[in-house]
C-alpha cells in the first residue's frame, strides 16, 4: 500500500483495506502519525461541546417565528388518487385479459407416416451392396415418424391443458360482462 492510499483506505475502505492500512501504519512512521491524528480528530468530533446561551439565542434569532404553510396535503391526495387510478387500471386490464373468450382450437391433421418396408430391412440384415442405404432410409423414416408422434403428443397435451382451463375458469359471455 502506498502512503497516499492510506487515509482513504482507513477512513472509507472495507475490512480488508482497513486491515492493510493498519498493517502499513505499523511499518510506516508517517502513516502511524497520520492515523493517530485522524483518531484524535474523530474523538473530538464524537463529543461536541454543548452550545452556549449566546449560541442558542443566535440560532433562535435566525429561525423565522412563523412556519410557512405547505401544500403537502394536496400533493399527497393527488398521489393517492393517482395510485388508486393506476391500481384500478391494472385490475381491469388483468381481469379483461383473463376473461376473454378462448379461441377455437383448430384440428391439425398429422402428415401421413411413411410405411417401413420390412422385407428390405431383412435383406439389408443379411447383407448386400446397398444395405447401408436401406438402413439409412429406414432410420430417416423412423425419425420422421418420431417427429410426427412428438407433435401429436404435444397437441394432445395442449388440448388437455385447454380443457382443464376451460373447466376451471368458465369463460364469460357478452351478456354476463355487461350486467
Tally of individual helices = 8
Radius of gyration: 41 Å
* Quantity of strands, as a count: 0
Order of helices and strands: HHHHHHHH
Mean pLDDT, all residues: 79
The helix/strand class is: mainly alpha
Distance between the termini: 77 Å
Please bin the fraction of helical residues: over 70%
Topology of this structure?
Blueprint: H1 6-12, H2 15-27, H3 29-46, H4 53-62, H5 72-98, H6 118-126, H7 131-168, H8 174-178
Helix pairs in contact: 1-2, 2-3, 6-7
Q: If you had to describe this structure to a student in words, what would you say it looks like?
A:
- With 179 residues, the chain is mainly α.
- Among the domains are: 3-60, no CATH class; 118-178.
- Helix content is 71%, strand content 0%.
- The protein contains 8 helices and no strands.
- The protein has helices spanning 6-12, 15-27, 29-46, 53-62, 72-98, 118-126, 131-168, 174-178.
- The longest helix has 38 residues, at 131-168.
Short description:
This protein is an all-alpha fold.
Features:
179 residues, mainly alpha, 8 helices, 71% helix, elongated
Amino acid at each position: 500500500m502506498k502512503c497516499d492510499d492510506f487515509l482513504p483506505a482507513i477512513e472509507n475502505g472495507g475490512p480488508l483495506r482497513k486491515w492493510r492500512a493498519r498493517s502499513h501504519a505499523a511499518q510506516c512512521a508517517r502513516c502511524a502519525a497520520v492515523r493517530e491524528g485522524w483518531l484524535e480528530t474523530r474523538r473530538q468530533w464524537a463529543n461536541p461541546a454543548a452550545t452556549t446561551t449566546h449560541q442558542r439565542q443566535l440560532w433562535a434569532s435566525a429561525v423565522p417565528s412563523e412556519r410557512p404553510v405547505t401544500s403537502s396535503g394536496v400533493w399527497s391526495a393527488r398521489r393517492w388518487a393517482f395510485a388508486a387510478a393506476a391500481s384500478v387500471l391494472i385490475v381491469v386490464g388483468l381481469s379483461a385479459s383473463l376473461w376473454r373468450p378462448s379461441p377455437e382450437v383448430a384440428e391439425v391433421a398429422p402428415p401421413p407416416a411413411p410405411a417401413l418396408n420390412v422385407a428390405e430391412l431383412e435383406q439389408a440384415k443379411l447383407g448386400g451392396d446397398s444395405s447401408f442405404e436401406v438402413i439409412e432410409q429406414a432410420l430417416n423414416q423412423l425419425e420422421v415418424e418420431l417427429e410426427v408422434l412428438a407433435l401429436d403428443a404435444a397437441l394432445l397435451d395442449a388440448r388437455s391443458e385447454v380443457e382443464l382451463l376451460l373447466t376451471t375458469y368458465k369463460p364469460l359471455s357478452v351478456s354476463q360482462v355487461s350486467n
